[in-house]
Amino acid sequence: MSYRLTPRVQLRSSPATFSKAFSVYRGEPPRLVVAMAAEDITRLTILSLSMSTTVSPLSVSMEIPAYGATAAKAPLEPLKIERRKPGPHDVEIEILYCGICHSDVHKVNDDWGGTHFPVVPGHEIVGRVASRGTRATRFRDGELVGVGCLVDSCRVCPECRAGHEMFCEKGVTFTFDSFDQNTKTWTYGGYSADIVVDERYVLRVPEVLDPAKAAPLMCAGITTYSPLRQFGCKPGDQVAVVGLGGLGHMAVKLAASTGAEVTVLSTSRDKEKDASRLGAKHFVATKEPGALEALQGRFSLIMDTVSAPHDLNTRLTLLRNFGTMVLVGLPPSAAQLDAFTLVHGNRRIAGSNIGGIPETQEMLDYCGKNGIVADVEVIKADQINDAYERMERGDVRYRFVIDAASLGD
Ligand code: NAP
Ligand code: ZN
Ligand code: ZN
Predict the structure, then answer these.
(1) How far is CA 144 from the centre of its chain?
(2) Domain of residue 279, CATH code
(3) How many angstroms does the Cα of residue 358 sit away from the middle of ligand 3?
(4) Which end of the chain is more exposed for a tag (fewer CB within 10 A), N or C?
(5) Which residues are close to ligand 2, an ion, with C-beta < 5 A?
(6) Mean pLDDT computed over 380-390
(7) Are residues 225 and 322 located together in one domain of the fold?
(8) Among all ligands shown, which has an atom nearest to the Cα of 125?
(9) How far, in Å, CA of 16 to CA of 97, rounded?
(10) Ligand 1 pocket test: which of 123, 164, 307 has the largest number of ligand atoms within 8 Å of its C-beta?
């Protein structure tokens, strides 16, 4: 007869120090391991004692400060969350900065349905490696790394093998509000001090990039880079970006960096100067009467980044024959499509979902070589709710980024 022990550890000192004090035991043969660093551990609670032959390998956890929402549309507030102790292939990352994506806002509002509360958003994470599992060899301690939208997948299905982990046939694990098959818990994202991720899903961030400005590359960067690669963007191409927010401003910078001639279609006339500084040649304030008339049939590619319901058909008329409009924005309600607008001119409409791990690394390397980063407004954790309100009004210049050092304040 043997027992199942599920110890949980809560600590007051840094998770990095804590993790070094424990021997690695995720994935090892069943055995009882409880190693303690006396100065680190303030409470050790045996939560369950039941009949079994195994010890739950992921049950020892670290408690860390975070920010999250406990109900739909509720203000975000300080929370304590638990992270698993790093297993053999894991990297523990001390988070420096985390961007605020509009998907975080949709999730907290439960715009898409199915959010599990409490939710700790955040998938634009940049930090430094604080500790590594015994078999995690890809990164050195202290290295600048990033985590985007994905933290796990099956690794062997055709999509995973092709580097399209977001379409894993067994189901991808997203960085937050996603069911983690290993821990059997819902994942918590980057509005937190620390995260533990299998090294396969950790990205190398070029040291030449400012970490706060590089954080938004982990979602806004890859989400706009990938469609430019998929649908083509080359010198002289006429490319339009609809919506100048977090994704939109990265789309402008990335498209302009290829030599394409970029036009911004925005509801905010006061973003015109910024659009030009970001690399756009033309700016159109779409709410002004007749604004789109001169642009009929102009663009080979339109990237629509808008977060709210809006008319697609008038934008589609701006495509040239065989041109493509790619949707990356995810408004909560469905749009109407006019078949005539698509059929006349063999116009195409497409969608694009973030990007896989290899393409995200390619994008980071490209941004490192070309000095491309986001325009950010760095905020403290207690400003997150204001940032959400401003994003809902379209008042973002052009990505809010949380300074993780403020999470414990
Ligand atoms: P954001 O920073 O809030 O920017 C959205 C922009 O859309 C606003 O700045 C505004 O630009 C425009 N806009 C907002 N409301 C509008 C309205 N009613 N009509 C027309 N334009 C409006 O958001 P984001 O972080 O870039 O995210 C944009 C969308 O992409 C969200 O739905 C998000 O969930 C989605 N997303 C998708 C993926 C993916 O994989 N496909 C990845 C990340 C995010 P102007 O002021 O210039 O009009
Ligand atoms: Zn995102
Ligand atoms: Zn897979």
Answers:
(1) 17
(2) 3.40.50.720
(3) 14
(4) N
(5) 101, 103, 219
(6) 98
(7) yes
(8) 2
(9) 17
(10) 307
Q: What CA–CA distance (Å, rounded) separates 295 from 285?
A: 12
Q: Is the CB of 78 under 6 A from ligand 1?
A: no
Q: Are residues 65 and 135 in the same domain?
A: yes
- Look up residue 116 and give its two tokens: 């599990």
Looking at the structure, tell me whether residues 212 and 225 fall in a common domain.
Answer: no
Q: Mean of the pLDDT values across residues 370-397?
A: 97
pLDDT range class, residue 8, cuts 50, 70, 90: very low
> How far, in Å, is the centroid of ligand 3 from the Cα of 167?
7
Same domain, 92 and 231: no
Same domain, 318 and 395: no
How far is the centre of ligand 2, averaged over its atoms, from the C-alpha of 220 (Å)?
6
Atom of ligand 1 nearest to the CA of 309: 18
> What is the whole-number distance in angstroms between the Cα of residue 165 and the centre of ligand 3?
6
Contact 107/68 with Cβ under 8 angstroms? no
Higher pLDDT, 41 or 281: 281
Give me the number of domains the chain comprises: 2
pLDDT tens-digit profile of 105-138? 999 999 999 999 999 999 999 999 999 999 999 9
The residue segments making up the domain with residue 141 are 3-218+357-408
Rg (CA), the chain: 23
Q: Which two tokens stand for residue 278?
A: 């970001």
335 shares its domain with 377: no
Both 74 and 43 in a single domain?
yes
207 and 66 in a common domain = yes
